[in-house]
Specification:
Oligomer: single chain
Distance between the termini: 114 Å
Radius of gyration: 32 Å
Structural class: alpha/beta
Length: 373
């Protein structure tokens, strides 16, 4: 017969006979045995499908991680090939000489049009970013804490796939901090919070930087002196988005989640209101971690509304306000201790308060009062 011919052709006759007997045996099984076999087969199929899904998820995660690493690698390559941002000043015919912004012919800045002024302001901002990096600060991307449940690489990957606008887009949110601060290994931290408007990270007043002096208008002296006194530094950049939301995200990631128990805040103008919002959101940190708050002509519009917390803030805070009184003269003004900064100009209060602030920091740390005008 046909079966006999097939067995003769195939050399493994015993194997064929074995499986034929098995098939005949299965056919003789009763309904109960068949039901068990079918159930077992269904379970095996389900397990197999689950394994396939797990493999697919693992492959997607690996692919996403590889894409993100490739994205970072390409960013690093492009940043090295890219011309330094300080060349923007040179392209506009300007440079800083002894802290003064001058033209290539040595003349000081003269206002012409708002467009030219804004272009120069962007160039100054880029220059300050470079200067902060030279001082050891790193530009750190900021992502909303509401997405903190995602793996760390996914927000970066998703943001890198968007089409950013020519202005600062949501994928360009960042701030500056020391590496030790970002790694949550810094025992003492100074947080700098600028005011509202056109200022960016590293600036107290853009107009002072452009028209008068880089030293007086920028946060560079604060960063240098903080490093001299053993502090890591966080420089906020809140005017890219909501200043309060920005500060909350930075604080939550680098202060609340760190082991640092010694934090000092310097906040100018609307930065005072941002500080009050931080206190409302993180009262425990302000009770235990924050040792001193220095306001410079703060616009905080009242306290937190939480009596114990307000008492704590009143105890650890001082506000250097614009006044025609001699520098450091006490002024009775609200629940927070106010003293004269030594200038009547709101924009200049941070610069004028600089020596007094770091003298107080030295006292706080038990050091000598070395800083003088």
């Amino acid at each position: 017969s046909g079966i006999q011919r097939l067995v003769m052709i195939i050399p493994h006759k015993r194997v064929i006979l074995f499986w034929t007997a098995r098939i005949i045996g299965l056919a003789s099984l009763d309904f109960h045995h068949w039901t068990c076999i079918i159930k077992l087969a269904v379970v095996c199929i389900k397990v197999l499908l689950l394994l396939i899904v797990l493999v697919i998820v693992l492959l997607v995660c690996c692919f996403s991680g590889v894409c993100f690493c490739l994205h970072l690698f390409l960013q690093e390559i492009m940043s090295r090939l890219k011309k330094p941002n300080s060349s923007l000043l040179h392209q506009l015919g300007y440079d800083f000489v002894d802290g003064k912004l001058v033209k290539s012919n040595g003349e000081s800045f003269q206002f012409t049009t708002q467009k030219v002024y804004d272009e120069l302001g962007q160039a100054v901002t880029s220059y300050l970013y470079e200067e902060m990096e030279k001082l050891g600060l790193r530009k750190i991307g900021l992502y909303s804490s509401s997405r903190s449940h995602w793996p760390s690489f996914l927000p970066n990957l998703l943001n890198s796939c968007r089409n950013p606008t020519p202005q600062e887009s949501t994928s360009d949110l960042f701030f500056f901090a020391n590496h030790e601060v970002n790694e949550k290994k810094c025992p003492r931290i100074l947080v700098l919070i600028h005011g509202s408007g056109a200022v960016r990270a590293g600036q107290w007043s853009r107009s002072i930087i452009i028209n008068d002096s880089l030293k007086e208008g920028s946060q560079l002296p604060f960063i240098k002196e903080a490093h001299n006194q053993g502090y890591g530094v966080i420089v906020t950049n809140g005017n890219q988005t909501s200043p309060e939301d920005h500060a909350i995200s930075v604080w939550e990631n680098l202060i609340t989640k760190s082991s640092c128990e010694h934090v000092i805040i310097v906040a100018h103008s609307y930065g005072g209101q941002v500080t009050m919002e931080l206190a409302r959101r993180f009262p425990q940190d302000f009770d235990s971690k924050v040792k001193k708050v220095f306001f410079t002509d703060s616009a905080h519009y009242g306290m937190t509304g939480m009596p114990p917390l307000d008492q704590r803030i009143s105890k650890i805070s001082v506000n250097y306000v614009a006044s025609d009184l001699p520098r450091n003269t006490p002024i009775l003004q609200g629940p927070i201790t106010c003293v004269s900064s030594g200038t009547t100009s709101h924009e200049w209060t941070s610069s004028f308060a600089f020596p007094m602030i770091f003298e107080e920091i030295r006292k706080l740390n038990g050091g000598p009062e070395l800083l003088r005008d």
